[in-house]
Amino acid sequence: MCGIIGILGKTDTVPAMLGALKRLEYRGYDSAGVAVLDDGQIKRRREIGKLQALMNSVGDDPIAGTSGIGHTRWATHGEPTTKNAHPHITSRVAVVHNGIIENFRDLRDELKNLGIICEGESDTEVITKLLDHYLQDGMDPVTAFKAMISRVTGAYALAVLMSGEKDLMLGARRGSPLVIGLGDGEMFFGSDALALADLTNRLIYMEEGDLAVLSHSKAEIYDKNDTLVQRKISFSHISGALIDRGNHRHFMQKEIYEQPTVVAQTLGRYLNPNTGTIALPAMDFSLANISKITLVACGTSYYAALVAKYWIEQYAHVSVDVDIASEFRYRNPVYAQGGLCLFISQSGETADTLAALRHAKDAGQHVGVIVNAAESSMAREAALVMHTHAGPEIGVASTKAFTCQLAVLAAFTVALGVERSVIETSRSRALVAELESAPTLISKILSDHDPIISMADKLASARDILFVGRGIQYPIALEGALKLKELSYIHAEGYAAGELKHGPIALIDEHVPVIGIAPKGEISKKTISNLQEIAARKGNVILVSDDISLSTEFKGAFIMPTAGQFIEPLVYAIPVQLIAYYTAVAKGTDVDQPRNLAKAVTVE
Ligand code: M6R
Predict the structure, then answer these.
(1) Per the residue annotation, which of 43, 254, 400, 599 is the catalytic one?
(2) Domain containing residue 276: CATH number
(3) What is the DSSP secondary structure assignment for residue 552, as one 8-state letter?
(4) Which of 191, 204, 557, 563 allows an S-S link to 571, with CB 3.0 to 4.6 Å?
(5) How many CB atoms lie within 10 A of CB 520?
(6) Containing H/E element for 404?
(7) Has 341 been annotated as catalytic?
(8) Residue 602 lies in a domain
């Protein structure tokens, strides 16, 4: 979602701000802007569309200044127009904001009664005018900022410049992350560590309710009680070089190809191949005593949770509930005494998942996370943190983070089963060995998937596409459909193959491709029967299976390497990613930044 950069620098900040906004592009945005203090006066440029438009605008009509703030906006309140783009300014202040100010209508009415009119529909414009009003009333900058903050409800990360204040930048966070970067005679704000990569590696992750007053030489932080506090300095290893596509056409393609490495890297943190055992991070409760597990996540991470339900119930014999995070806390969930709630997230910042985590924590549940962004809010708020080691995922569509989530969930399942004495040592060794074979199998698919490319060329002209699977492949069918629709904008749905006859089969005709995911095994016989029912109705079936004897049974087939049954979902995730990727390429859509999508959804 929206991205923030703020720089109190020594030289002109505009090139560095544009570089930071480039690194923030992956979050998804529809307009961008920068503002600087030029001789104490606020100067601003804003453009809708891609960052290049802003770069052109700054090139055509340059602005410069040693302090500046910049923003990429993903529209929430108000359309993606230049008027609604950030920074919002008055003659006294410039503001960039991530999040949603919930009481902006009340504040706008209040300002109107004072004769102060807001021209756009943006909530940020309202708080900018409110801050300006307090300054005009004679408050000093910090008092005015605190007064403004005390009036707003909702979520925000803010960075603020004030005219005539060359040695001052203000920031605050509640609900949306904000990081302070400590430089050498320079200070920075960023919405994440990537924004600040190449500027500094000394970071302070602001906590909920923190407000920061930056000068060139120091960062003062006030907590939610307005007490001056010291926060831990972290050292970031993220470099701007990580946001390089290398020889790949898209970040998504690069990330798909990284999977053998990052899945192996992730498994390496949990598996001991010599003993065939799994070590999870230390926890202050015993897995043996857990009566129920609740898995909560959004989007692709939710599908990882669905896969895990099959794994945990089948292999570790623990009852699992799976919830969409945005539904979780509003349905008043019944928590089991001493239950474990696991939250799954690539970004660790997804607003609904974070809110669900806090709900479970307040209810006294054991709370764990499976998270990719190591310094994210979720990683900092959970007692049990199981990291995926996928590295930064830049493509909006999640690929390598998903397979790494599955790797951790599989390892967790085995550890849980062993802890509860339902998986014996020999079984554990066999499952660990299967997991270790996953990276090689993924490599094999990646090095030999030409049939998917020609398949995708045909799929690109479809209007609707179905993905079907049974058992643990059902969530992979759902993931395939999500990936395809978000990338190619083709309507796609995932179904449990056995459900088709209960309604969706009415959709089938010769124009509807149906991708059947059916690794060889007992349950695949049932899936194949369901696919035959589709073929009998002229449905255009494409089979994804390791059963070579079925390679000519349907109109199309992609033959997979044979994988151990336990790791099949991890391996079958790859062809559905490739189908979505190549279909989008064939359609010519924006693969890395599909329309309307944001990488981390930090608002409800
Ligand atoms: O960062 P998270 O894993 O919490 O994100 C959850 C979803 O927003 C995310 O998986 C989304 O569905 C992706 N665009 C899927 O490719």
Answers:
(1) 599
(2) 3.40.50.10490
(3) T
(4) 563
(5) 18
(6) helix 400-419
(7) no
(8) no
